[in-house]
Design a protein that fits this description.
Chain lengths: ~575, ~270
C-alpha cells in the first residue's frame, strides 16, 4: 500500500485513510495529494480514477469539522463508489445538468448501500449536509437540497422538484443494486429542470456536499465529436474534463508515491547542476598512499557524491522473485540476528548467580548421601548486536560484462545482491547502507548512495537500485576511505564494510598496477583504525592476486559461481555477524 | 497420592461452547484412542474454552499450564522441596495428570523452550511413559490421561516453532474466528447484548481482520468482542467501549488507530 505525500509537510495525507478503506471493504486504494486548484475561486473536490484517490492536502474553505474527519468521509464515499459502482456511465447525448443529476443520484445510491452495511457512515457524512429548504432556487441550491433529501430521512423539503427526486429514488429502493436506476431518474429530473427554466452552469458547478468526489471517475467520455448542434453537451464535457485540474494517474512502473518522484525532480536538478559546473558539487578530499615514496599524498583524490539515477522500481520486485527461496531463509536468519534477548545458561560450574533448582538438587543429593552435581550456577549470555553494514559496489565499466555461464551481467547480479540483502535484512535495515563508486581520474571519483543508514528500504531506494549503471574505472582506495568514514560515524559496536569488486583497482591516470593496489591496502588499514572491518567479495575466481594483498588472508571470498552472488552476499553478512 | 486432589480440577458446570464445525466429534475420537491433540488458531478464538468444554463433556479433570520461556522440565514434572531439613517430592502438573488420569493442557506450547518439551515425547507415543529422572521413576500414564496443547502459528516469529519430532506426535484441530452468524450468537450469549449491537461489534472485528498483514499482526478476536460487550453492559457508551477493548489494546500506530476508530464509527 503506498501513500502519497505532497511536496511539503503540510501536504501530507494521513496513512489511516487508506487503511480505513481496506478495513471497510477489503481492497486497497492509493492516496495522492490533489494539486492546488487551477484558479483561486475554483472549488476543489476529491477525485478518483479506478483505485487512485486524489484528496485535498489542506482543508477546503467552508468545510466544517476537522480535516481528518473530512478525509475519512471522502474516502468512505469514494470507496462506496468502488464497492457498489457499476462500470462507468456513458456520457452519450446527456446534457451537463443531467450528468450532474445522475452523478448525484449515483452518489446517494452507493452511500445508501454502504450505510446498509455500515450504519455509522451516515453519521460520518451528516455534518457536511448544510443545505436548507429555503432561499433562491438555483440549480446549485436545488442539487444540494436533493442530495440532502436523499441522505437525511428527517429532512423536510416541500420543493416539488426535490420531492419528486426523493420519491422516485426511494420508490426504486428495490433496484438500488442497479446503477441504471440513477440514469433513468436522472434523465427525468434533468428534463424537469429544463422545463422549470432553472439555469445550470457547468462552469460554476461544484458537487455538494464537499466530501464527495467530482464525478470524473463515474463517466466514460467519448473521444468523437458530436455531429449535431449539441453545443451545450460538448461545452459541458469540456468543462468537466478541463475545469478541474486533471491529475494524471501514475503509470505502471513509475514510483507511485509522489515522494520519490519529488526526490527525483530535485535529484535531476542537482544532476544537471553537475553537468553545468562540477566545481559546485560537494567533494571530499582524501589522501592517497604512494608506495614508491612510502608516504601518503595528502588531499590527493577528490570523491564527489552524486545522486543515483532513478530507474523502474518494479524491476527490482521481478528480480527478487527469482530469489524467493533464498530470501525466506535469509529473512529467518536475519530475524534470529535481530533477536537480542539474552540467553540464560543454566547448570554451570561458575556463573553470576545461583541456579536454584540445581542448587536444591545438589542439597537433596547431599542429604541423600549421593554425589551432588556441582554445576549449580547460572549466567545470562547477552547476544552481540548485529554489525552496521556498508555494502560498497564497484561500478566500473567491467561490471557490464556478462557473468561466465550466465546471461546476466555482473551489474545485474550486483543489483540483485543489493536488493536481496536490503529485503531480507529489513529487520536491521537501519544499520544497512548500500553505496557504489566509479572513478575517472583522481579528481573525479564518483560516489553514489543507493540506500543510506537509517533510511527505510522503500520505493525510492528500489528506483535507485534499478537505475544503477556501471562505467569508468576503479579507484578503490579513495572509495574505501570515503565509505570507511561514513561507516565510522555509526553508533554500532561492530562495523563491517563489504566490498564487491571484479578485480584489481585501476584508473586512467595510473599506469603502475601496484600503485592503486598498495593504496587500497593502506585504506583498509586506516579503516581498521576507525573501527571498520573490511571484507571483499571478488567477482573473479582468479582475483586472489589482487584481493588478498588488499584485504588480507581470510578477509575475502572469491566466487566461482557468480549467479550465486546475491545469496552469497547476504549469507556472508549473516556469517560474519554471528 | 490420592485422586482426591483432582477434584479441584473438575469442571462441574458446562462451559459455553458453540461448535463451529466437527471439532467436538474429532476431539472425542482422538480422546477415545488417546491421540494427543494440538489446537491451532489465532489468539482469542476459543481454543481454551473448547478444552474446558471437552473436559466437562468427557468428565475429566483439567490441568492447565501456561507455557513460557522460563519454564523448565521440572515445572512440568515436579521437584524435591526442602521441608524441615528433609526432602519431599512434589509432582508437577504433567505428572499429576499422568499419574491420576486427567487432561493436561499446555497453553501456547511454543512459548516453552524446545528442550523442555522433549519430556513429553515418551508420554505421547504408544509407550505412554513419563520418566522422572530426579526420582529415578518411570511412570506409566493412567488410562484416562490425555495431553492437549495449543499453538498459534500466526504471530510467532520464525524463531519459534515446534520441533518436527514434537509436532508429529499430535493430531491437530484448526480453529479460526467464527463466521459472522456464529460470532454474533456467541457474543449475545456471553454478554447478553442486544443482537443488533452484537452484529455491529462483529462488523468492527471483521473490518479489523481485513487489516491483518496490513499493519496489524492479529485482528480483533472474539475474546476482545466479549470484553467490549461486557463494558457496554456496564453502561459504557459503545464507541468508548470499542476504543478501550478493541482499538487501544491492538495497536499503538497512530495511522492504524485512526483507521480503526473510523471503522468503529462506521460500524456502530
Amino acid at each position: 500500500m503506498s501513500e502519497a505525500h505532497g511536496e511539503g509537510p503540510q501536504r501530507e495525507l494521513p496513512g489511516g485513510a487508506s487503511r480505513f478503506v481496506r478495513a471497510l471493504w477489503g481492497f486497497d486504494v492509493r492516496l495522492h495529494a490533489l494539486p492546488p486548484a487551477a484558479h483561486e475561486f475554483a472549488a476543489r473536490r476529491p477525485r478518483f480514477v479506478a483505485s487512485n484517490l486524489w484528496l485535498p492536502a489542506s482543508p477546503l474553505t467552508g468545510v466544517p469539522g476537522s480535516f481528518s474527519d473530512y478525509l475519512f468521509a471522502a474516502c468512505a464515499h469514494i470507496s462506496a463508489h468502488l464497492r457498489f459502482g457499476a462500470p462507468r456511465f456513458s456520457i452519450k447525448s446527456l446534457k451537463p445538468a443531467q450528468v450532474a443529476i445522475i452523478s448525484l443520484l449515483e452518489d446517494a445510491r452507493v452511500e445508501r448501500l454502504a450505510t446498509e452495511q455500515y450504519p455509522g457512515l451516515a453519521r460520518l457524512w451528516a455534518p457536511y449536509y448544510t443545505a436548507r429548504a429555503d432561499g433562491q432556487k438555483t440549480s446549485l441550491s436545488l442539487f444540494a437540497r436533493l442530495a440532502r433529501a436523499l441522505h437525511d430521512d428527517a429532512y423536510v423539503d416541500d420543493d416539488s422538484w426535490v420531492s419528486k427526486g426523493r420519491q422516485l429514488f426511494f420508490e426504486g429502493r428495490a433496484e438500488w443494486r442497479d446503477a441504471s436506476l440513477c440514469r433513468r431518474i436522472g434523465g427525468a429530473l434533468g428534463n424537469d429542470l429544463g422545463q422549470m427554466r432553472v439555469q445550470f452552469n457547468a462552469k460554476d458547478y461544484a458537487v455538494q456536499p464537499a466530501y464527495r468526489d467530482d464525478n470524473i471517475g463515474l463517466w466514460q467520455f467519448e473521444q468523437e465529436q458530436t455531429d449535431d448542434g449539441c453545443e451545450l453537451e460538448s461545452e459541458g464535457r469540456r468543462r468537466i474534463e478541463s475545469d478541474v485540474p486533471t491529475p494524471k494517474p501514475p503509470e505502471r512502473g513509475e514510483p507511485l508515491a509522489s515522494g520519490p518522484s519529488d526526490a527525483s525532480a530535485s535529484e535531476r536538478a542537482s544532476g544537471s547542476r553537475s553537468q553545468v559546473g562540477a566545481e559546485l558539487e560537494p567533494a571530499t578530499l582524501h589522501p592517497e598512499w604512494d608506495y614508491v615514496i612510502g608516504r601518503e599524498r595528502p588531499d590527493f583524490c577528490r570523491v564527489r557524491e552524486r545522486p543515483a539515477a532513478l530507474g523502474d522500481a518494479t524491476r527490482i520486485a521481478a528480480t527478487l522473485a527469482r530469489y524467493a527461496p533464498a530470501r525466506k531463509r535469509l529473512e529467518r536468519s536475519a530475524l534470529r540476528l535481530a533477536d537480542r534477548r539474552p540467553i540464560r545458561l543454566r547448570r554451570l560450574l561458575d556463573g553470576d548467580s545461583l541456579d536454584l533448582p540445581a542448587a536444591l538438587a545438589a542439597v537433596v543429593a547431599h542429604e541423600s548421601a549421593v554425589s551432588a552435581d556441582p554445576r549449580v550456577y547460572r549466567r545470562l549470555r547477552f547476544q552481540l548486536e548485529p554489525p552496521a553494514l556498508l555494502l560498497l559496489l564497484d561500478l566500473s565499466e567491467s561490471l557490464n560484462a556478462s557473468a561466465p555461464g550466465s546471461s546476466a551481467t555482473l551489474l545485474e547480479l550486483a543489483r540483485s545482491a543489493s536488493a536481496l540483502l536490503a529485503t531480507s535484512l529489513s529487520s536491521i535495515a537501519g544499520d544497512l547502507a548500500i553505496h557504489g563508486f566509479s572513478s575517472n581520474g583522481r579528481h573525479d571519483v564518483g560516489y553514489y548512495r543507493f540506500k543510506d543508514f537509517g533510511q527505510p528500504y522503500d520505493e525510492l531506494v528500489r528506483a535507485r537500485l534499478a537505475g544503477m549503471h556501471a562505467h569508468l574505472s576503479t579507484r578503490l582506495g579513495s572509495a574505501l576511505r570515503h565509505a570507511g568514514r561514513a561507516l565510522a560515524t555509526r553508533n554500532a559496536a561492530r562495523k563491517l564494510l563489504l566490498v564487491v569488486t571484479d578485480g584489481e583497482p585501476s584508473d586512467i591516470d595510473i599506469h603502475d598496477p601496484k600503485y592503486l593496489l598498495f593504496d587500497a591496502k593502506q585504506a583498509t588499514i586506516s579503516n581498521r583504525r576507525l573501527g571498520v572491518t573490511s571484507f571483499c567479495v571478488g567477482l573473479d575466481a582468479n582475483a586472489e592476486g589482487s584481493v588478498k594483498p588488499i584485504f588480507g588472508a581470510g578477509n575475502y571470498s572469491l566466487l566461482d559461481r557468480l549467479e550465486s552472488l546475491p545469496q552469497k552476499i547476504a549469507q556472508l553478512y549473516l556469517r560474519l555477524s554471528a | 497420592m490420592s485422586a482426591a486432589i483432582l477434584d479441584a480440577f473438575r469442571i462441574p458446570d458446562e462451559p459455553y461452547y458453540l461448535a463451529l464445525g466437527d471439532e467436538l466429534s474429532l476431539f472425542e475420537a482422538a480422546y477415545a484412542v488417546r491421540l494427543p491433540v494440538m489446537l491451532k488458531g489465532p489468539t482469542g478464538c476459543g481454543k481454551t474454552r473448547f478444552v474446558q468444554h471437552m473436559a466437562w463433556r468427557l468428565r475429566r479433570p483439567l490441568l492447565t499450564v501456561a507455557c513460557n520461556e522460563e519454564m523448565s522440565a521440572s515445572d512440568l514434572l515436579g521437584r524435591y522441596l526442602l521441608e524441615d531439613g528433609a526432602t519431599r517430592w512434589q509432582d508437577g502438573p504433567l505428572t499429576i495428570a499422568a499419574r491420576l488420569g486427567a487432561i493436561c493442557y499446555l497453553d501456547e506450547v511454543v512459548e516453552a523452550r524446545q528442550d523442555t518439551l522433549v519430556v513429553i515425547h515418551p508420554l505421547t507415543d504408544d509407550r505412554r511413559l513419563l520418566s522422572l529422572p530426579a526420582r529415578s521413576e518411570t511412570l506409566r500414564a493412567h488410562p484416562d490421561f490425555h495431553l492437549v496443547v495449543s499453538h498459534n502459528p500466526g504471530y510467532q516469529s520464525a524463531l519459534k516453532d515446534l520441533k518436527p519430532s514434537t509436532k508429529q506426535r499430535f493430531g491437530a484441530i484448526e480453529f479460526d474466528f467464527p463466521v459472522r452468524a456464529q460470532e454474533v450468537e456467541i457474543l449475545v450469549h456471553e454478554t447478553a447484548l442486544a443482537r443488533e449491537l452484537a452484529e455491529r461489534l462483529v462488523s468492527v472485528a471483521e473490518a479489523a481482520r481485513r487489516l491483518k498483514g496490513h499493519g496489524l499482526d492479529e485482528g480483533i478476536s472474539t475474546r476482545m468482542l466479549v470484553h467490549a460487550g461486557a463494558l457496554i453492559r456496564q453502561g459504557i457508551a459503545a464507541e468508548a467501549a470499542c476504543q478501550m477493548a478493541l482499538v487501544r489494546p491492538l495497536t499503538d500506530d497512530p495511522d492504524l488507530v485512526s483507521a480503526l476508530n473510523a471503522s468503529v464509527r462506521a460500524c456502530l
